[in-house]
Each structure stands twice: as structure tokens, then as C-alpha cells.
Amino acid sequence: MDSSTGTEPFSGQATFARIFRPEELGTLPGLLGLKSDRPTLVLVGGAGGMSEELTGQVQAFFEHHLVSFLESHGIVTIDGGTNAGVMQAIGASRAHLNASFPLVGVLVEALVRQTPGILQKDHTHFVLTPGSNWGDEVPWLGGLASILAGNAPALTLLVNGGEIAWQDAVLSVEARRPVLVADGSGRTADTISQGFTSGSLDPRMVKLIRSGLVSVANPFTQPEQFMRRIEAVFTSS
Question: What range defines the domain where residue 22 resides?
Fold first, then answer.
């Protein structure tokens, strides 16, 4: 077994695990000290491409609406773990509210070592994956989400995002994990939102629509409706 766990200077007091092969995914919950079959949120989308203003809006939504729900339902949250965009927003929100739900970042190890200060400091766990480019972590992140959720509910929340967010969305529906898209958050999220009404022929868009697993709501203008979409996934019997 090549996977390893522990703490390192670059990850502060967070627990980390390395993974090298897909067949090791099943070992990650134990290495991270997390139980499987627990409700899981996958948070994907904008990083450095998000403006400070939008990041602030997203963080405000997280602090006023999302984090308390994640905390009260013990929902483990998985994202890309970097100190930017939605990942910075969820980490800072969790810390500001003194929440205790696990927050797991999944990143390519080579990029972590090449980029000092890349890790968002308020994450509780990190999984370091093989690869050399941004986006190489996507299948590992999705695989970990499926393993942790097991038979429990899971949801992918897509906010803003670039090309990698498309990969996250497509892999989520392939795993039969519903996707909630944050309309009004820009870039890929808005492209998907508009595609639902424009009849886009983009093959990726068609795949998302035909899956029946993708829904759209605006967290800024209709936060209560947005939260009801999330609550429906995690509280349905």
C-alpha cells in the first residue's frame, strides 16, 4: 500500500493522505479518520478566476445560509482545497462560524509543492493526488465523494467555475450525483444555467440536461429557494 497519512509543515495541523492508484480510493476514509456512509457535499467552481467582490458575495451566502446547514447535518464537504474562490470562501466561513464539519481539499501534490501558500488554512483534511496539471485531481475528488457518501445522500454544488467545472459536473452526473448550479455566479455556472433555457447543442450541456440530475437556482436573489434545493437532497427519506 502506497497511500500515506499524517501531518506536514505545508498543511498545518490538517490531516493529509496521499493516493497513487484508483484502487486505493476505498482506503481514504480510514486514512483520513472519517467514516463513510455520511452525507457529502462536493463544492466545485471558481478559484483564481473569481473576483474579490464575487468571492465576498459567495462567502456571505455561505455564512448566512449554507454553513449552518452543513454543521447541523454533519455533512462532510469536499473541494479543491486552494486558497482562492469558492474554496477560500467555504474555509473562511467555516472558521468564522466555528463549525466542525470535515472540510476536505483534494489537490495534485506536485502543484502543492510548486506553489507555496496554496492550501486554504481552514480545511481539516487534504488528499494529495498524482498529476501535473490543474484538473488532474477531478476524478480523484469525485471518487472520494462517492466513497465517503456510500449509501448516504450526496450533492455537487457548482459556483462560477471555468473549464474544469465542466469536468466536475459531467463526472458528477456519471456517478449519479445530483448537481445544483448557482445561477448568477458567472462563467460556467451561468453558461449551464442559460443552456437550460436556450436549448444548447453543446454535447456536455445535452448530457447534463438529459441526466435529469442538474438543477439551477440563484443563491443571491433567492437564497431560501436555493437552500430548499439543497435540503431536499439531504433530508428526503
Answer: 4-235
In degrees and rounded to multiples of 5, residue 190 shows phi and psi of -75, -35
End-to-end CA gap in the chain: 38
**For residue 196, what is its C-alpha cell?**
437550460
Q: How many domains does the chain have?
A: 1
Global pTM value: 0.94
- Is residue 204 packed enough to be buried (19+ CB in 10 Å), middle (13-18) or exposed (0-12)? middle
Tens-digit pLDDT profile for residues 149-186: 999 999 999 999 999 999 999 999 999 999 999 999 99
CATH number at residue 93: 3.40.50.450
Residues 6+ apart with CB under 8 A from 223: 61, 64, 65
Grid cell listed for 145: 465523494
**At residue 65, what are phi and psi to the nearest 5 degrees?**
-135, -55
Spatial CB neighbours of 150, under 8 Å, sequence gap ≥ 6:
36, 37, 38
